[in-house]
Amino acid sequence: MYKLTALYRMPQDPDHFRNHYENVHMPLVRKMPGVLRMNYTFDVKDLAGNQPYFCIFEAYFRTAQDMVDAANSPEGQAVTADIPNYRPGEFEIVHYEVPDEG
Questions:
Q1: Rounded (5°) CA angle 36-3-86
Q2: Model confidence pTM above 0.85
């Protein structure tokens, strides 16, 4: 299994980010081929109760190549093109293999 994680710091306009992310961006992401599962949350806290990130998104793929293919697809390109529209501010995207737990 292969995972992509997006870590978003607090944006300048949290209400705009959340509205656009949930109502426009996520419907675009759901159209991407090869996504096995995805989830996101806005309730991100560290153990001390601080909010180091405003939003975290996770998408799972069968393989790293499936992730690359999804990103390069027309649907994936539409997702990438939409990122500036929700004005995320500072963010990181990381990806990595997730070991089987069996």
A1: 85
A2: yes
